[in-house]
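Dear Dr. L.,

I hope this message finds you well. Following up on our conversation about the binding site, I have prepared a predicted three-dimensional model of the protein together with calcium ion. For your records, I am including the exact sequence and ligand specification that went into the calculation, followed by the structure tokens. Please feel free to forward this to your student if that is useful.
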Amino acid sequence: MEEQKKELRKKILDENIFGAIVDNTFRNADINNSGYIEKKELYILLNKIRQNLDIPLAREEDVNNELIRLDTNKDGKISKEEFRVLVKEITMFSIDQLE
Ligand SMILES: [Ca+2]
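The resulting structure of the complex is given below.
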């Protein structure tokens, strides 16, 4: 399994595959099609992920902290470029959870 996980990580980090994952996740998360992930959308996304991973739901404070962490240019919303960090973390975390 460890070997499989390693392979999977390598495969996913291939730019074409990872780029497609980012595009897809971003499109789904950007509910109002604004081209950015706003706080409300981040809240919905984080809770979907947490639900899937069976971890407690995010509080407003958690979402605020995530927004601050991801919003590197401080414009109050998450661009696709900024979003990549989160998608990578989620993807790697999901692989770690595989058994
Ligand atoms: Ca931003």
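In brief: The domain at 2-96 is CATH 1.10.238.10 (Recoverin; domain 1).

With kind regards,
A. P.
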